[in-house]
Write a structure and sequence with these properties.
By secondary structure, the protein is α/β, with parallel strands linked by helices. Helix content is about 40%, strand content about 20%. It contains 15 helices and 22 strands. It has helices spanning about 40-60, 65-80, 80-90, 95-120, 150-165, 180-190, 205-215, 225-235, 265-270, 290-305, 325-340, 375, 395-400, 415-425, 455-460; strands at about 1-5, 5-10, 10-15, 20-25, 30-35, 125-130, 130-135, 140-145, 165-170, 195-200, 220-225, 240-245, 250-255, 285-290, 345, 365, 385-390, 405, 410, 430-435, 445-450, 465-470. The strands form six sheets. Strands 15-16-17-14-13-19-20 form a seven-stranded mixed β-sheet, sandwiched between helices. Strands 10-9-8-11-12 form a five-stranded parallel β-sheet, with helices on both faces. Strands 1-5-4 form a three-stranded mixed β-sheet, covered by helices on one side. Strand 4 (about 20-25) and strand 5 form a beta hairpin. The longest helix is centred in the first third of the chain and has 25 residues, at about 95-120. It binds nicotinamide-adenine-dinucleotide (NAD). Nicotinamide-adenine-dinucleotide binds near residues 147 and 232.
Length: about 475
């Protein structure tokens, strides 16, 4: 069993002030895979003090010096990719190949996106002949991340914060902290100066809240549930922190009758990927009536052929969901779908055949869903697809927008004018059409209950800066 009780503070691994053990459970086996410690106020204070102490020197370094450290980190990260993938497989149940290619790959992708954006990023922007707008790093930042895409989220926060000259305290998810610990080792190896990056493990009520309320933390960048996002915003209000939020989603995927023939299979696959644990998953499939029956058939076929199995095996199957808590929540929501009258077309409650241990969920398809049902309004965070028929373009837009969330919506149609017309009227941070993903460095973020942040590339760098105006500017 791995023991990772130490925190990374001021350039070294230190023991927690008070012992407070927490078990990390491998969701494929339900066994304890590791023991970490949950930090206390003194640990958080020590980490924030280290970050505060390191800020003047780090923020004053020429950009090229900070970029050099990030490039060195990327080299190490790529060289130790397999180790990172193994940690993610163990802590959150991403199958080996998915963990390496997608989970670890996302960290590389975002780090490269920031490095490319930095080549053109202007920290000083001349506004008039005599006025300059200067972007300063905001200061000490608290970074709170979830368990579903650990390296994706950590890189989207730590790399831009480092790049613009912020110093920081990272609190990874206590459910999936092993990748964060490894990430800290890599930054150390890359030569990040002491105090610039600090890691304290802990939970929301503990270290999470201590960071959100800390007077020396200028900003919290958070990814996770809308519930926690609201709590953090309230906790941060007294110290007037900037709060950047990446929260949940309930993506609508509008499939018009003229969509390409793979549109439904692609959408269902996307919904089930990562065992449905993605905030941008297209979990509501809205299908034009003339294609509806065929769409249900295609989605059922996808669910029934989507293998489910141990994350410790190679292959293209999906793994378990992260925890017993999430497993039970998903089971309850599947039952709720049945009780509210949706037609269970594939999957259902209980584990897939042949699996009696591990938090494995059956890929599930509900047909004849109406948008007011709980399963259409709630972020399930499991491999559960809801299919809703529609008759007109207007109705599809209305259903898609009728959600507390607005992260990613999707449109499938071969009619370019219609696809763009609909995309422009959808209320979300990202509209992906005809299966095309976001480009490297694109801003990732949402509106409404999906949050307010824009992470990645140019926008992600700006997120960690303050804008300062200087008048009667002289070179
Ligand atoms: P969560 O929001 O509780 O946890 C995410 C992170 O926030 C963790 O590091 C946690 O320790 C921390 N946290 C929790 N409460 C906090 C608080 N009050 N103050 C400061 N930090 C706090 O998410 P969860 O419990 O792991 O998952 C529950 C639900 O959240 C899921 O079902 C899913 O709907 C949603 N979720 C969304 C995303 C996303 O990317 N949008 C990611 C993870 C979870």
């Amino acid at each position: 069993m791995i023991k990772k009780r130490e925190f990374y503070i001021d350039g070294q691994w230190v023991s927690p002030v008070q012992a407070n053990d927490f078990d990390v459970i491998d969701p494929s086996t339900e066994e304890i895979a590791a023991v970490i410690s949950l930090g206390s106020q003194s640990d958080t204070d020590a980490a924030v003090a280290a970050a505060k102490g390191a800020f003047p020197a780090w923020s004053a370094l020429p950009l090229a010096e900070r970029v050099k450290v990030i490039k060195k980190f990327l080299e190490i990260y790529n060289a130790r990719a397999q180790e990172m993938a193994d940690a993610i497989t163990t802590e959150m149940g991403a199958p080996l190949d998915w963990a390496l290619e997608e989970q670890v790959g996302a960290g590389t992708w975002h780090t490269e996106g920031f490095l490319e954006a930095l080549e053109k990023f202007e920290f000083e922007r001349r506004y008039t002949d005599t006025e300059m707008h200067v972007l300063d790093p905001i200061g000490v930042v608290g970074l709170i991340t979830p368990w579903n895409w650990p390296m994706n989220q950590i890189c989207l926060k730590v790399i831009p914060a480092l790049a613009v000259g912020c110093t920081m305290v990272l609190k990874p998810s206590e459910i999936a902290p092993l990748s964060g610990v490894l990430f800290a080792e890599m930054l150390h190896e890359a030569g990040v100066p002491a105090g610039v990056f600090n890691l304290v493990n802990g939970d929301g009520p503990g270290v999470g809240t201590q960071l959100s309320t800390h007077p020396d933390v200028a900003m919290i960048s958070f990814t996770g549930s809308t519930r926690a996002g609201i709590e953090i915003s309230k906790a941060a209000a007294d110290t007037l922190k900037r709060v950047s939020l990446e929260l949940g989603g309930k993506g609508a995927n509008i499939v018009f009758a003229d969509a390409d023939e793979n549109a439904v299979t692609r959408g269902a696959m996307h919904c089930f990927n990562n065992s449905g644990q993605s905030c941008n998953a297209p979990t509501r499939m809205l299908v034009e009536r003339s294609r509806y029956d065929q769409a249900v058939e295609d989605a059922v076929k996808t669910a029934e052929t989507r293998g489910v199995g141990s994350a410790h095996e190679h292959g293209t199957h999906i793994g378990p969901v992260v925890s017993e808590l999430q497993f039970n929540k998903i089971q309850d929501l599947i039952q709720n779908g049945i009780d509210e009258g949706a037609r269970l077309a594939a999957g259902g409650t209980g584990r897939p055949a042949g699996l009696n241990r591990g938090y494995f969920v059956r890929p599930t398809v509900f047909a004849d869903v109406t948008n007011d049902m709980t399963i259409a309004q709630t972020e399930i965070f499991g491999p559960v697809l809801s299919i809703i028929p529609f008759d007109t373009e207007e109705e599809a837009i209305e259903i898609a927008n009728d959600s507390p969330y607005g992260l990613t919506h999707y449109v499938q149609s071969q009619d370019n004018a219609k696809r763009m017309r609909v995309a422009r009227r959808l209320h979300a941070g990202m509209i992906q059409t005809n299966g095309q993903g976001l480009a490297k460095g694109a801003p990732f973020g949402g509106v409404k209950a999906s949050g307010n942040g824009r992470e990645g590339g140019h926008y992600g760098l700006e997120d960690f800066c303050e804008v300062k105006v200087i008048t009667a500017y002289a070179d």
